[in-house]
Design goal:
five-stranded mixed β-sheet, globular, Nucleotidyltransferase, domain 5
Length: about 280
C-alpha cells in the first residue's frame, strides 16, 4: 500500500492507495508541521488514528506538509514517521509542491495556499521557479485563517465589535478576553488556535465589519504575494486551502480588479495528488 498525504498545520488527509492507483480510503489526522510537531505528538496521534491498523502494510509514503521547507525540518519529520511506518520509504516535501501538482494544467501558474497559513509561488510546469517570501504566523500569513483570526481577536478584546456580534461570539465560544490571551501565549500551536476563530467570521461574512476585513485581507495578500512576481498578469491564478475555498468570491473579485484570471480554487488537493502520482508511474 502507498500513502499520499497532504498536511496543513491544522489537518492532514492521508490517501491510502493500492498499487494500481485506486484510493482505498482517506484517513484524517491533525496536521504535522515540523515547526510545531514533536515526536510524542506525532506518534500519539498516529496511534489513535485509523492508520494504526495498516501501518505495517505501507511500503511508500509521499508526505506534503506545511513547514516542510528545509532539509533539516524534513529529516526530522521523516525520522519521526519512520518509527511508526517501519516498512515504508518516506519522502517529505513542501505543501507548495502538492498545490502545484494538484493545480497545474499545462501552462505556468501563480499557485497560492490560503489555509491556516499562506504561501505563493510561480510554477513553470517543471519546477517552482520563484517562491513568495513567507514570514510565518507571527509576521506574515496574509489572507490566511491565522491572519483573519488575529483581527477578530483584536476587535473582540478591544471591544470594537458591534454588540450583537459580541453576543453571538460569546455564544459561539466559552473563551473570553483573558483566556484568549492566555491561550495565545501558552498553547503549543498558537497559530492553530488563532485560525480557529476564522469559521465564526465566515459564518457572519455578510456583516459589514467582516466583509471589509475579508476584502482588505485578500487584497493585501495579492499586493504582497501575487503582485510581487514580475509580469504577474501573464500567469493564471490557482489556489488551494479551505480559506481560499470559502473566500473564493473575494478572490475572484480581487483578481478581476487586477485583470487576472483565476484558473482554479481547490479546497483539498489530495485526490488530484493521487491522480498525478500514478500518472507519472
Amino acid at each position: 500500500m502507498i500513502l499520499i498525504a497532504d498536511s496543513g498545520s491544522t489537518k492532514c488527509a492521508w490517501a491510502e492507495c493500492s498499487t494500481n492507483g485506486n484510493i482505498v480510503k482517506i484517513h484524517y489526522t491533525v496536521g504535522f508541521n515540523p515547526k510545531f510537531t514533536n515526536y510524542n505528538n506525532l506518534i500519539n496521534e498516529l496511534k489513535s488514528s485509523s492508520l494504526l491498523a495498516i501501518k505495517d502494510q505501507i511500503s511508500e509514503i509521499n508526505f506534503y506538509g506545511a513547514g516542510c521547507s528545509s532539509k533539516k525540518a524534513n529529516d526530522k519529520l521523516q525520522r519521526y514517521m519512520a518509527r511508526f511506518f517501519v516498512n515504508a520509504t518516506i519522502n517529505i516535501m513542501h505543501d507548495l509542491e502538492a498545490a502545484v501538482k494538484a493545480c497545474y494544467k499545462g501552462s505556468p501558474i501563480i499557485c497560492s495556499i490560503l489555509g491556516t497559513g499562506s504561501n505563493s509561488c510561480i510554477y513553470s510546469g517543471d519546477e517552482i521557479i520563484e517562491n513568495g517570501l513567507s514570514l510565518g504566523y507571527i509576521l506574515g500569513d496574509e489572507g490566511s485563517g491565522n491572519y483573519f483570526g488575529k483581527q477578530l481577536i483584536n476587535l473582540y478584546v478591544n471591544k470594537r465589535l458591534p454588540q450583537h456580534l459580541i453576543e453571538s461570539f460569546e455564544n459561539w465560544t466559552n473563551d473570553r478576553e483573558v483566556k484568549i490571551i492566555e491561550n495565545i501565549y501558552s498553547l503549543e500551536k498558537p497559530n492553530l488556535y488563532i485560525a480557529s476563530f476564522f469559521p465564526f467570521m465566515y459564518q457572519h461574512k455578510n456583516e459589514p465589519i467582516f466583509d471589509i476585513i475579508f476584502k482588505q485581507g485578500i487584497e493585501h495578500f495579492f499586493e504582497l504575494h501575487v503582485k510581487c512576481f514580475d509580469n504577474f498578469r501573464n500567469y493564471k491564478l490557482t489556489f488551494t486551502g479551505s480559506v481560499a475555498f470559502y473566500l473564493s468570491d473575494y478572490i475572484h473579485t480581487c483578481a478581476k480588479k487586477e485583470q487576472m484570471e483565476v484558473q482554479e480554487i481547490i479546497q483539498s488537493p489530495i485526490r488530484n495528488l493521487v491522480t498525478e502520482y500514478f500518472k507519472s508511474k
